[in-house]
Amino acid sequence: MCRRFDATRPVADEVLDDMLDLATRAPSAGHTQGWELLVLSAQAERRVFWDATRTDGYPDRWLEGVSAAPVLVLALSDPTAYLDRYAEPDKGWRDRSTERWPIPYWDTDTAMSVMILLLAAQERALGALFFGVPGALHDRVKEVLAIPDRLRIVGVVALGHPDPVRPTPRSPSLRRGRRGVERMVHRGRFGRH
Ligand SMILES: Cc1cc2nc3c(=O)[nH]c(=O)nc-3n(C[C@H](O)[C@H](O)[C@H](O)COP(=O)(O)O)c2cc1C
């Protein structure tokens, strides 16, 4: 993840368009494709987002580095699209009950789309960061950006060129190290390696 972007280098329109096209091709339950991507690439658009999410106490250095990103992509999931899709005859869940969804695949599919953006950024030597919007701010962000109420803000991808002068410091979280295959992969049943 990149947390310090070069504010002076935009992402070329054709590069961004190509990445967004890829992000629409994520797999999805029932091929519902129930996510929306809100792209903020003009400075005034990004300012609306940052003004709505600025809270006292959020690390200033984080904000300074990340708000330099020339592009923000809000990844929004649409539960109703899935309830509609699965009420169709080939699925037949006409009660449209969310209890049929032990895993909210609207969010899963949106995250798969995000992962495509992250991989596409890596492939193009761009920097990218996926970050969450604090829950208490979702309503405000939706309001200022006219995001329909039914959509859920799964997260935001910041995109741009990494700052060449001040590279992103190592995230303190990385001190945790990688858990590794030995601990994360279970074969046959839990408890065996
Ligand atoms: C669901 C999710 C939420 C995240 N939220 C944030 C966030 O709010 N702010 C942030 O700086 N990084 C956030 N990250 C990035 C992680 O901190 C980062 O992936 C992790 O520290 C590993 O670092 P690396 O991806 O650079 O290896 C998030 C990542 C995921 C997958």
Strand content: 5-15%
What are the low-pLDDT stretches, counting only 5+ consecutive residues below 50? Answer: none
Structural class: alpha+beta
Helix content: 25-40%
User: How confident is the prediction overall: mean pLDDT?
Assistant: 96
Q: What is the CATH architecture annotation?
A: 3-Layer(aba) Sandwich
Small-molecule binders here are:
flavin mononucleotide
Strand order of the largest sheet: 1-2-4-3
Domain module count: 1
User: The CATH topology, please?
Assistant: NADH Oxidase
CATH level 4 superfamily: NADH Oxidase
The total of helices stands at 7
Rounded Rg:
19 Å
Shape: globular
CATH class: Alpha Beta
Number of strands: 4
Explain what the structure shows.
This protein has 193 residues and is an alpha+beta fold. The protein has 7 helices and 4 strands; from the N terminus they run αβααβααβαβα. The chain is globular, with a radius of gyration of 19 Å. The model has no long low-confidence stretch (mean pLDDT 96). The protein binds flavin mononucleotide. The site of flavin mononucleotide has 9 residues, from β3. The site of flavin mononucleotide (FMN) has 9 residues, from β3.
Question: How is this fold's topology laid out?
Answer:
Elements: H1 13-23, E1 35-40, H2 43-53, H3 60-66, E2 71-77, H4 79-86, H5 105-123, E3 127-131, H6 138-144, E4 152-160, H7 181-184
Antiparallel strand pairs: 1-2, 2-4, 3-4
Bound molecules: flavin mononucleotide (FMN).
